[in-house]
Amino acid sequence: MIGRIAGTLVYRQPPQLLVDCNGVGYEIEAPMPVFYDLPQPGEKVVLFIHMVVREDAQLLYGFSSLEQRAMFRELIKVNGVGAKMAVAILSGLSAEEFSLCISTQDVVALTRLPGIGKKTAERLIVEMQDRIGKLAADQPPVAAGDVSALVAGSGRSQAIAALEALGFKSAEAQRMVKSSKGETVEDIVRDALKMVSSK
């Protein structure tokens, strides 16, 4: 199983990126906080990886720290939460914010995330409470690489596509992007997610 990838960043288009390792390109899906930490294309990048093997695909999910990956792995153990939903959760809330929602049993905040209904939010709270405490004790954050300047985004259409990939409806994603004053794809998506979490 692949646990870590170090190579050259080829491109980044949330929620996906491509890393070249000695001539082999690895397509990786990642939550939005990972994109905030990525270097510019052409520079070296290191990501911690969770690999999912299915009959029809081998999928790679990338994370900036061991803490992020550990949280992802705990999330996908929750009944009804798959990898795509776990990525959406970690895109909409930082690990600290998610932990706070769980510890304070904030169902309302969790249901603001795309694809999370009341029942799923309640299930997350019940199943994650013990796991959050264990993660806090056992998994100090470890950075996978240096935080570098954000690469300029290539348009609001990519930001809309990224939000749609995270589970937002097209019309909602367009409204969120329109309200953002960001210039890069990452800034626009970050603004949009902040708007959702502040409601």
- Overall mean pLDDT score? 82
Question: What topology, given as strand order, has the largest sheet?
Answer: 3-2-1-4-5
What is the domain total for the residues?
3
Number of helices, where a helix is a run of at least 4 consecutive DSSP H or I residues: 9
Secondary-structure class: alpha+beta
- Termini distance? 40 Å
The CATH superfamily of the largest domain is 5' to 3' exonuclease, C-terminal subdomain
| Helix and strand sequence | EEEHEEHHHHHHHH
CATH architecture heading of the largest domain? Orthogonal Bundle
Instruction: Estimate the strand proportion.
Output: 15-25%
- What does the radius of gyration come to? 16 Å
How would you characterize the overall build of this protein?
With 199 residues, this protein is of the alpha+beta class. It folds into 3 domains: 4-63, Nucleic acid-binding proteins (OB fold (Dihydrolipoamide Acetyltransferase, E2P), Beta Barrel), CATH 2.40.50; 66-138, 5' to 3' exonuclease, C-terminal subdomain (DNA polymerase, domain 1, Orthogonal Bundle), CATH 1.10.150.20; 156-198, Helicase, Ruva Protein, domain 3 (Orthogonal Bundle). Helices cover 48% and strands 19% of the residues. The chain is built from 9 helices and 5 strands; from the N terminus they run βββαββαααααααα. It has helices at 32-37, 66-75, 83-92, 95-103, 107-111, 118-138, 156-165, 170-179, 185-198; strands at 4-13, 16-21, 24-29, 44-53, 58-63. A 5-stranded antiparallel sheet has the order 3-2-1-4-5, covered by helices on one side. β1 and β2 (16-21) form a beta hairpin. The radius of gyration is 16 Å and the shape is globular.
